[in-house]
Amino acid sequence: NAGVTQTPKFRVLKTGQSMTLLCAQDMNHEYMYWYRQDPGMGLRLIHYSVGEGTTAKGEVPDGYNVSRLKKQNFLLGLESAAPSQTSVYFCASRQGLAGGRGYNEQFFGPGTRLTVL
Amino acid sequence: GDSVTQMEGPVTLSEEAFLTINCTYTATGYPSLFWYVQYPGEGLQLLLKATKADDKGSNKGFEATYRKETTSFHLEKGSVQVSDSAVYFCALTLNTGFQKLVFGTGTRLLVSP
Fold this sequence. Notes:
The complex is a heterodimer of chains A (about 120) and B (about 110).
Chain A: E1 4-7, E2 10-13, E3 19-25, E4 31-37, E5 43-51, E6 54-57, E7 65-67, E8 73-78, E9 87-94, E10 107-108, E11 112-116
Parallel strand pairs in A: 2-11
Antiparallel strand pairs in A: 1-3, 3-8, 4-5, 4-9, 5-6, 7-8, 9-10, 9-11
Chain B: E1 3-6, E2 11-14, E3 19-21, E4 23-26, E5 31-38, E6 44-50, E7 56-59, E8 62-65, E9 75-77, E10 86-94, E11 102-103, E12 107-112
């Protein structure tokens, strides 16, 4: 099992450019998440998905779009990058729960470091 | 809203010293609590967890006890090693819905030989 993988690992964009970050998991997990990590702020949730074909907004969704066309992939898009989107982006996934209660561990990818000039 | 507060770093220790990283939380329900560790250049790994009051999570010599009365989940290790140098995040999640993780700001630990 590769677990959770993210591509690319690094990227530099100019303001106004667009790009897509890819997250893939091979654990057949229902839930997937995108977080951003900024100095002194911990990780903040951008968007999440509770299953194939579904997405929802997290704490800081502005400027991002997501898609989950296949269960194993969760894409994060930046349509017009801004310097404020310079950050490290982490994807995570977890198994769903029978009955909807309790906890299952979130597994994280290695991150994508994005710089917007 | 739900939040996690942890001590600012960096925490600088000599090898074999005792480690404490403080973490307190605010939550509307009954959260599960976690410590995640991030080694340089890597993603986050779950270090330990506790899902109810008075539970003690432990792993790799690290321990933390879920204290509901003080809303705390302090991380401790009796004897740190250079290889423990990393950033440690305290986090919580409520055990319903989509289980958003709420993270603290992270504490960098530097251990010197």
